[in-house]
Amino acid sequence: MRLRRLHEKARQQEEEEYEYASAVRRLRRRGWSVLGNAPRQVDHTRFNQIKAEREAFRAECEGNVVRKIQEASKQRENILQQIAMYKEEKARQENIVRDAARQEREEQNAKREEYLTLLKERAANTRAIAEEEREFIRECAATESKYRQNRIEILRERVFAKTYTSGLLTNLSGTLCGGGRQYPPGDWRNTFKSPLRRLPNAGDDAFRKQWVTELQEERRAVARAEVERTKRLQTSAQREAAYRDNCERAEALRKEKDALRERKKQQCEEVQLFHKALRQQEVEGQKRREEVLRALRESKRETASIIRQAIEEEEMMFQTLEDEELRQLQERVAQMKKNKTFSPRMALSPPAERVL
């Protein structure tokens, strides 16, 4: 807008000069001259110099503006490249974190499957051992029942015998006297009180039944005590083995949980550090972008101020030139008014002869 106004002013000034020169030419044609005998050559060296300086300064300003624009474009391209690199790095880091989390989940699933398989194997082994123990207990019970039935049959045959041979009495007397068969220590036959000691009552059915009942009860108590002792020994051993297994399993689970907790804590710390680094990078990138934008705004402001100052100086220069030319024209008009006689030698040259 300012350049347009300046061009308008220059064009108006040229038109006014042309009109003034036309008026002077018309006066010369009439034979009147008011400015001198000979046409005076106008020196426009200073004006041309100022105009050249103005053009050079304008070209320099335009070159500076173009250079600033190119620098800003390069900086913008660099910023866009940095932003693209930052986005790629961020995506790569996110992919790394995602792959690490997926790998960790796969490892945890594999460990869980392995642990479940181990638990199933241990449970199967425990069931097999329990089944073997139950089978052994059943076999022991069957053997004990068979042995008890055999002993009861033998004792029944002895008790219900109606006749006694001499050999039998001899053996019984030897047994009663202590010179018969010897049994191992702790055997029930060493402490057994035979009803044959009471020979007069041996034929009593009620006595025989009572004796058989007591014998059966005593044998059942001894067998029950033996079975309980065996079960107690086996149960205590199994309980101790199960307790040791449970302790070892609990210790292994505790160690595994501690390791998992430490791994999770370490992973959380790594994720926090990664997020912190990302936030720092984002903050630094934002600061760099703000600094670049601030520098661009400052450079733009400085360029605008320089251009504005150059335009103001140019306007001042044109105003000075206009004032100088107007003053010269006023002086000439005043000189024309003072001179009463007009001479054609004092007239100005036409615009075609002026050196602009």
Structural write-up:
It comes from Trypanosoma cruzi. Residues 337-356 are annotated as: Disordered. Keywords: Coiled coil. This is Trichohyalin-plectin-homology domain-containing protein. Residues 69-118, 208-270 form a coiled coil. The protein is mainly α. It has one domain (35-162, 203-338). The chain has helices at residues 2-30, 45-159, 166-177, 188-191, 205-338. α1 packs parallel to α5 and α2 packs antiparallel against α5 (205-338). It is rod-shaped, with a radius of gyration of 66 Å.
Helices, strands, pairings?
Layout: H1 2-30, H2 45-159, H3 166-177, H4 188-191, H5 205-338
Helix pairs in contact: 1-5, 2-5
Rg, Cα atoms, Å: 66 Å
Query: Helicity range of the residues?
Result: over 70%
Oligomer: single chain
Proportion of beta-strand residues: under 5%
Mean pLDDT: 75
Query: What count of helical segments does DSSP give?
Result: 5
Q: Based on Cα principal axes, name the global outline.
A: rod-shaped
Note poorly predicted spans: 32-38, 162-180, 341-356
Number of strands: 0
Class by helix and strand content? mainly alpha
Please provide the ordered H/E string of secondary-structure elements.
HHHHH
Largest sheet: none
Overall number of domains = 1
Please give the alpha-carbon distance between the first and last residues: 25 Å
